[in-house]
DNA sequence: TCCGTGACGCGAT
DNA sequence: CATCGCGCCACGG
């Protein structure tokens, strides 16, 4: 059977997708925060993989820790443009996280 | 099977 | 505050 899915990699992947889709207009979240919210702490790199594989996601709302734009070159410029279009402001080269970082609802505690 | 790669994160320097 | 190094995770050559 699913010997290739250790503990449910696919499901975690689905949760990552939902977390990204749940990001409200005008807000952002770091790769690591998305992974953690999806119940997969430490899997920031998987978030990147999802962003590159699943089309139609609000990719511009996902940034690096501290609000850093990690996308290089023109793509990074595109991301900053889109965020500004949504009303997101920057502090230097990074997003003002104190004001725009999205707070994921914690699944029960 | 080993090794390199990537829109990462964080502590140390 | 800029860099560096190392850990993390899955994938592809």
Strand order of the largest sheet: 1-2
Spans of at least 5 consecutive residues whose pLDDT stays below 50 are: none
Which percent range fits the helix content?
40-55%
**How many structural domains does the protein architecture include?**
1
Q: What's the average pLDDT? A: 93
In the CATH hierarchy, the third-tier topology is known as Arc Repressor Mutant, subunit A
Q: CATH H level: which superfamily?
A: Winged helix-like DNA-binding domain superfamily/Winged helix DNA-binding domain
CATH architectural group: Orthogonal Bundle
CA(first)-CA(last) distance: 33 Å
Shape: globular
Secondary-structure-derived class: mainly alpha
Number of discrete helical segments: 5
CATH class: Mainly Alpha
Largest sheet: 2 strands, parallel
Total E-strand runs: 4
- Could you state the oligomeric state of the chains shown? single chain
| Residue fraction in strands | 5-15%
Question: Cα-atom Rg, whole angstroms?
Answer: 14 Å
Order of helices and strands: HEHHEHEEH
């Amino acid at each position: 059977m699913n010997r290739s899915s250790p503990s449910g990699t696919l499901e975690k992947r689905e949760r990552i997708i939902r977390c990204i889709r749940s990001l409200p207009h005008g807000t952002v979240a770091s790769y690591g925060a998305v992974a953690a919210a999806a119940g997969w702490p430490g899997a920031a790199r998987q978030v990147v993989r999802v962003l590159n594989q699943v089309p139609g996601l609000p990719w511009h709302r996902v940034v690096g820790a501290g609000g850093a734009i990690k996308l290089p070159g023109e793509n990074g410029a595109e991301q900053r443009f889109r965020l500004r279009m949504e009303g997101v402001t920057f502090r230097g080269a990074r997003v003002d996280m104190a004001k725009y970082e999205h707070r994921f609802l914690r699944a029960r505690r």
